[in-house]
Structure formats: structure tokens, C-alpha cells
């Protein structure tokens, strides 16, 4: 029973995502639209958006639609039909076929490059096309999205990869749009040296502490002076030394953790 409940939830989530995408999607050249006028089947038409961003409709002729959402297009057509043609027209617009849209994904993926988005493509689907994450990938992906309004700055969308991939939080698995630029950041690293079993550079995680770093490095050796741990950190280009660091001391990217030898 529980299994069917989760399947139902997944279907509901997908349908809502599809509806949101359809409402937010901005129509462009080569999209194919179905325009329906309620109670006027002779005016229902399927039409491709021209290179000038226009569609040609019965009665009203050419209509500029490029850069508009389907909701806005329906309102525009309704207004034109109401101007001397039909009393209180009810118009719906549906995207029958999306044009070939492209996005770029760069950074810590196995196959970075330009990808064609057919239909409604999500971030996870693009990530799969790009061969998944590299071992050096961090916990964040950035999407730069151009604004639909002239003069407006681009929108920056941050995706928490840890929540999405490890915790299954699909709320951030957003639909991609034409000309989105996706960048997967490289993980920060920290270094641990001295009296640990596996001194090396390790991938930084947000909740890393000294004791977690030591655990990642295989634990202390028998010679370790656990009360005299030192952290060497760069702050505004200058070196800062944290003496006698506590085990719950937070570690930052590029920190060098030094575990000295005990002489007693």
C-alpha cells in the first residue's frame, strides 16, 4: 500500500512540475502551437512560430508571440478576437512541439559541453547526459538563466547536490530552459599531515570538524599528541595558526591540519 502511495505522490509532483513549466515556458521560433477557441472549432489551428516570432491565425492574421508565455499569448489572442470578431472569446494555447533548445554544462561533470534539450528536460536528466559527476565535484551546481525582460540581469539558481542526490530532495530538480548555463563547482579540499595513518588531501564537506578529518585520515597513530593539534589557515592572504585546536573545531577549505608527535 505504501509503495502505491509514493508512486501516486511522484505522479502528482511530476504533473505539477509539467504544469509549472508549461506556464513559465517562453515561446520561441520553431515552436509548434495549438490554438483553440472555445465554441469556434473553425478557428482552432496548429501553427509553427515563424523566424520573425509570429504565428498566422484565421481572422486576425499575424500575431507576435515570441518571448511570451502560453498564458500571455492566449490573453493576447483573446483581446484581438474580441476587437470586432467574437464576443467574450475563450482561448487556450498549448505547445504541441518544443523547438530544439540548448544548454551548456561545464565544471565537474564527465562529459561537459553543449546539449540539446528535447521537450521538458530536468537538471538530473542533463546531468545523466553529461556522464554524471566527477570524483572532484562539490556539493553545489549553479544555473545562470537569462532574463526574459530586456535590461534585466540574469537569474542565478543554486542547486544543493547533496540534498538532491543523497537525500532525494527532488524539489531542486528544476526544468531547464533554453540557453541555461550550468556549472558544477569543484569541491574544496583540506590537508591533514603528521601523526595520522593516512596523511593526504581530502574532500571538504560543510560539516567537517577536526575529529571527522582525523577519522577520514584513518585515525591517530600511537605517537599522536591529540591535545596539540594545529590548524594552518589562510585569512585574506595571510597565514593564521590555530594552536591547540579542539576536536570539534570546524575545518575550512584549504586548511592544513597538523597532528604533532608526542614526546612523552
Note the topology.
Elements: H1 2-24, E1 32-37, E2 45-48, E3 54-57, E4 61-64, H2 70-82, E5 91-97, E6 101-107, E7 113-117, H3 123-129, E8 137-145, E9 155-160, H4 161-166, E10 181-186, E11 189-194, E12 200-203, H5 210-216, E13 230-235, E14 238-242, E15 256-259
Could you characterize the architecture of this molecule?
With 264 residues, the chain is α+β, with helices and mostly antiparallel strands. The protein folds into three domains: 72 residues, wza like fold, CATH 3.30.1950; 86 residues, Outer membrane lipoprotein wza domain like (Outer membrane lipoprotein wza fold like); 71 residues, Outer membrane lipoprotein wza fold like (Roll), CATH 3.10.560. Helices cover 21% and strands 31% of the residues. The chain contains five helices and 15 strands. The strands form four sheets. The chain has a five-stranded mixed sheet with strand order 7-6-10-8-9. It has a five-stranded mixed sheet with strand order 12-11-15-13-14, with helices on one face. Strands 2-1-5 form a three-stranded antiparallel sheet, covered by helices on one side. The radius of gyration is 28 Å and the shape is rod-shaped. The N terminus is likely disordered.
Amino acid at each position: 500500500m505504501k509503495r502505491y502511495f509514493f508512486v501516486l505522490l511522484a505522479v502528482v509532483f511530476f504533473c505539477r512540475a509539467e504544469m509549472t513549466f508549461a506556464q513559465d515556458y517562453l515561446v520561441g521560433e520553431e515552436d509548434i502551437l495549438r490554438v483553440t477557441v472555445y465554441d469556434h472549432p473553425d478557428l482552432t489551428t496548429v501553427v509553427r512560430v515563424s523566424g520573425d516570432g509570429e504565428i498566422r491565425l484565421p481572422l486576425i492574421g499575424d500575431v507576435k508571440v515570441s518571448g511570451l508565455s502560453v498564458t500571455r499569448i492566449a490573453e493576447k489572442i483573446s483581446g484581438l478576437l474580441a476587437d470586432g470578431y467574437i464576443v467574450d472569446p475563450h482561448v487556450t494555447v498549448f505547445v504541441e512541439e518544443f523547438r530544439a533548445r540548448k544548454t551548456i554544462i561545464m565544471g565537474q561533470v564527465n562529459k561537459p559541453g553543449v546539449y540539446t534539450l528535447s521537450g521538458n528536460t530536468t537538471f538530473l536528466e542533463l546531468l545523466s547526459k553529461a556522464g554524471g559527476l566527477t570524483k572532484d565535484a562539490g556539493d553545489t551546481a549553479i544555473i545562470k538563466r537569462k532574463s526574459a525582460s530586456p535590461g534585466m540581469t540574469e537569474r542565478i539558481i543554486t542547486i544543493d547536490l547533496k540534498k538532491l542526490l543523497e537525500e532525494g530532495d527532488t524539489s531542486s530538480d528544476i526544468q531547464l530552459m533554453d540557453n541555461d548555463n550550468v556549472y558544477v563547482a569543484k569541491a574544496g579540499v583540506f590537508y591533514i599531515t603528521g601523526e595520522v595513518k593516512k596523511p593526504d588531501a581530502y574532500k571538504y564537506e560543510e560539516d567537517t570538524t577536526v575529529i571527522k578529518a582525523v577519522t577520514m585520515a584513518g585515525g591517530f597513530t600511537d605517537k599522536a599528541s591529540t591535545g596539540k593539534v594545529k590548524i594552518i589557515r589562510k585569512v585574506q592572504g595571510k597565514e593564521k595558526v590555530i594552536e591547540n585546536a579542539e576536536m570539534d573545531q570546524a575545518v575550512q577549505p584549504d586548511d592544513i591540519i597538523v597532528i604533532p608527535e608526542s614526546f612523552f
